[in-house]
Amino acid sequence: MGFKYSPATPAGKWLGFVTAIWVQAISGNNYTFSNYSDALKSLMSLTQLELNNLSVAKDVGKAFGILAGLGSDRLSPPVLLLIGSVMGFVGYGVQWLVISGHIQPLPYWAMCVFLCMGGNSTTWMNTAVLVTCIRNFRKTRGPVTGILKGFVGLSTAIFTDLCSTLFSDDPATFVLMLAIIPFAVCLTAILFLREIPPSSTSKEDKQEVKFFGIFNVVAVIIALYLLAFDVSGPHGRILSQAFATILLILLAFPLCVPVYLMLQNSIRSKESSISNTENNVVEPLLVQENQPEAEKKSETTVAEVVVEEEIENRQPVIGEEHTILEALKTIDFWIMFFSFLCGVGTGLAVMNNMGQMGLALGYADVSMFVSLTSIWGFFGRIISGSVSEYFIRKAGTPRPLWNAASQILMFVGYILMAMALPGSLYVGSIVVGVCYGVRLAITVPTASELFGLKYYGLIYNILILNLPLGSFLFSGLLAGFLYDSQATPTSGGGNTCIGAHCYRLVFIVMAITCVIGFGLDVLLTFRTKSVYSKIYASKKGKKSVTLS
C-alpha cells in the first residue's frame, strides 16, 4: 500500500502550510526596492522625490488589495495565487526589461503602473495564504501569523543574499529573480493550498503546537544562517554557491512534517487493513433507536427563536463576527487602523529610503542594512507571534500591548538615527526591522480576534491600505521633500545629498509619530481587555475539561 495523498488529510493540511511558507518567503519582494532603486534613479535621471514617488506607486498597489479581499470570499486560494503570480510576473518582468537595457526607459507614468502591478501581486498571495491558514489553524493564530509573516521578513534577505552570491549584486538579474521565482513558487502552492476544517480534538491541538515549534526552530536557523553569512564579509565563488545550496535545503526542510504524517497514516492504514481481515464484524440484531438529528433540530422553543432574532438585529460587540460595515462603525477598528499607520508607515519610509540613507552617511554598499532590516524583522514577527499567544493563554494579556511596546522601541531607533552616531544606522536598521515585524505579526491576528474570521480577508486588506498610505505620507512626501530641500543638483538632472543632515528632520518627525502610535495602542489595550479575558477563560476552560 503506497501513500494516499488528499488535501483534506492532516498531511495535506500541513503540506498546504509548507507551501504557504514558501509563498511568504518570496512575497516580500516589495521590500527590496532599495536594492535596485539607485539603478532606476540614474537610468531615468530622477530626483529623490521622483524616485520616492516610484516607491509610493509600488506601495499603492497594495491599495488595490481590496480586490483580493473581496475575492477571498468568492474565489478559491489557487485562483487568488494564480492572479497574484501573473501580476508579479508582468510587473517585475517589464522593470527587468528596462533595467537590463532590453527596451528604452518607459515614460514615468508607465513605470508607476508596472511598479503598482508588482506591488499589488503580493496582496493576492498574502490574502490567499493568511486567510486560508488562519482558518485552518484558528486556535493557534499567533504562531501561524508569526511564522508566515516571519518568512515575509526573511524574503528580502533571501533574495538579496542569493543575488549577491550568484549574480554579484547585478540589479537587472535581481529584478529578473523577483519576476520568475514568485511565479514558480505560486504555481507549486496552487496544487496544495486548500481550506481544511480546523482541529477538533485535544490530541490534534497538541500536535499543532509541537509542529509549530518545529517550524519556529527551522525559521530561526534560517535567519541565523542568513545573518552569519551577511556579517562574515566577502565570500569566494565556491563558498557562495555552497551557501545558496544549503539555504535551499533549509527552506525545503519543513516538508519533513507532512512526509512524517504520510508515513504515519500509511502504517496505520496497513495495520487497520490487517485487523479488519482477521476480525469479522457482527452487526447486532437490535439497534438502539436514537432520536433523529432532524427531530432534535426541530424542537426549538419559541424563546430560542426570539433570542436568535434579537442577536441578529443588534450590533455585534468586539470579539464577535462583524461584517465589514459593522467593523468600520466601531471606534476600535479606527484606533487599530491609525496606530497601524504610525508603525508601518514610518517603517516603510526607512525601508524605501535605506539606499539613500546609507549613501548619505558614506556607506558605498547598503545591501547589509537591507538584509539586517529583513532578518531582524523576521525575529520581531516570529517572537511576537509566539510570545503574545503564550501570554494570552497564561494571563489573558491583550495583543495590542505588544504593539505599544514596539512603538516605544521604534521611537528610540529613530532618535539614534537622527543623532547619526557611528554605527547608528546598524542599530537603527535592526530596531526598525524588529518593531516593523512586531507590528505586522500582532495586528493580523488581533483583527481576526476582534472582528471574526467570516469577512477577515476584506478587513485585513483594508488595514493593509496603511502600507500605501504610510508610504505616500512618510516616504513620498516627508522623506522626499525634506531630502530634496537639503540636496544639491547633479549634472545628469538628478540630485544628491551627503551628510547626517539629509534625513535628520525626517527621523525626528517619525519619532513623534511613534509616540502618537504608542498612545493609540495603549488605548486599544484597555478597550480590548475584556475580549482577551474571555479568550483566556475559554482556553483555560477547555484545558480543564481535557485534563478531567
Automatic annotation (TrEMBL):
Q: Which Pfam families match?
A: NFD4_C, Nodulin-like
Keywords from UniProt, A to Z, are: Membrane, Transmembrane, Transmembrane helix
The UniProt transmembrane annotation reads 79-102, 108-134, 146-167, 173-193, 214-232, 238-263, 333-351, 357-379, 400-419, 425-446, 458-483, 503-524
Where in this chain does the record put each Nodulin-like domain? 13-259
Look up the record and report any one GO term of the cellular component aspect: membrane
Q: Where in the cell is it found?
A: Membrane
**Annotated ranges, domain NFD4 C-terminal:** 320-533
Q: Which domain of life is it from?
A: Eukaryota
Show the Gene3D superfamilies listed in the entry: MFS general substrate transporter like domains (1.20.1250.20)
Keyword Transmembrane on entry: yes
What main location does UniProt list? membrane
Q: Does the keyword Membrane apply?
A: yes
Supply the CDD domains for this chain. MFS_Mch1p_like
Mode of membrane association: Multi-pass membrane protein
The family line of this record is: Belongs to the major facilitator superfamily. Phosphate:H(+) symporter (TC 2.A.1.9) family.
Give the protein's recorded name.
Nodulin-like domain-containing protein
